[in-house]
Design goal:
globular; 6 helices; Lipocalin; two-stranded antiparallel sheet
Length: about 290
């Protein structure tokens, strides 16, 4: 009788072990993205873009017109002073990143990641399979993000975003934009790839990436902000009319861009665009061109 009991127990253990191996084989290989990260700078990730420097951005005609109308004084309006960075831009922003994870207390599964930067709103990334909100649902700076695993890479789909800049000099993405992102971790390096789709201000998807390095001593400080009066007259919205932005002449002089040539759009994304440029302050090493403005 005892021998029969042990035979049955052994059979149960063998079946359980086989089922566990099968479940492990079918389960996605998940990477832990939690931790504190500091941004790794790259040549095309400047935080001080000149007005008019929209080169490499596939702005549509409407997107280019919107960018050329932008005036930096707009940021002095009370409603803009405390505006957080949005999802379509912040991963290339200037601050460190913290990614926290929400763990289900029963299943112990990661149900959401919570990325946060200095000067951002809440931006949860859900992994629990919840459905997207209805199309008419409110939009936010962080949008609504759901994620799925592609091997050990996390793919994130984001919708319901507010209108926001994709470069901090007037290049915008509309509130109809959606973003597909991928998180890829290799040791202490996190690569963040993002594709912005916008039917209004982009003529084709905008593909960019950024990298972070793990830093266990990094902190994301709070960002208290109070709007104040900065001298703008009431009901005045700073802007430039079509063809009247005075700062575009500076970017043309810097890179030798002809007057009839736009300083952004799909054409500027490719090497052939360089053939249309003239001798410029930049190529001649003029100090003002190298310093930026």
């Amino acid at each position: 009788m005892l021998k029969t009991h042990f035979v049955r127990l052994a059979a149960i253990l063998i079946v359980a072990s086989f089922c566990a191996r099968e479940a492990a084989a079918q389960a996605p290989v998940q990477t832990d993205f939690s931790g504190e990260w500091v941004v790794v700078r790259s040549q095309d990730n400047s935080e001080n873009p000149w007005v008019g420097d929209w080169f490499g951005l596939p702005l549509s005609a409407a997107g280019l017109a919107r960018a050329e109308a932008w005036d930096a004084a707009l940021l002095s309006l009370p409603e803009y002073q405390c505006q957080p960075h949005g999802w379509a831009y912040i991963y290339r922003g200037p601050t460190q990143l913290r990614i926290s994870k929400d763990v289900d207390p029963s299943s112990r599964e990661v149900v959401a990641y919570q990325p946060e930067w200095h000067q951002t709103a809440n931006m949860p990334v859900y992994l629990d399979g919840r459905p997207s909100p209805i199309e008419e649902a409110a939009h936010s700076w962080g949008g609504f993000s759901t994620a799925t695993w592609e091997g050990d890479i996390l793919r994130i789909e984001t919708s319901h975003l507010k209108e926001d800049y994709i470069r901090r000099n007037g290049a915008m993405a509309s509130d109809e934009a959606t973003v597909t992102s991928w998180w890829i971790r290799r040791g202490d390096i996190l690569t963040w790839i993002s594709i912005v789709h916008d039917p209004n201000y982009l003529s084709e998807p905008l593909v960019r990436s950024s990298e972070y390095r793990l830093n266990v001593n990094s902190l994301v400080p709070p960002h208290p902000c109070t709007s104040v009066y900065e001298g703008l007259e009431k009901d005045h919205v700073p802007h430039h009319l079509a063809g009247e932005n005075p700062f575009l002449k500076d970017i043309r002089a810097r890179y030798g861009v002809p007057a009839e040539q736009a300083t952004g759009g799909p054409e500027t994304m490719y090497p052939e665009f360089q053939k249309k440029l003239h001798e410029a302050e930049w190529s001649m090493g003029t100090k003002s061109a190298l310093r930026g403005r």
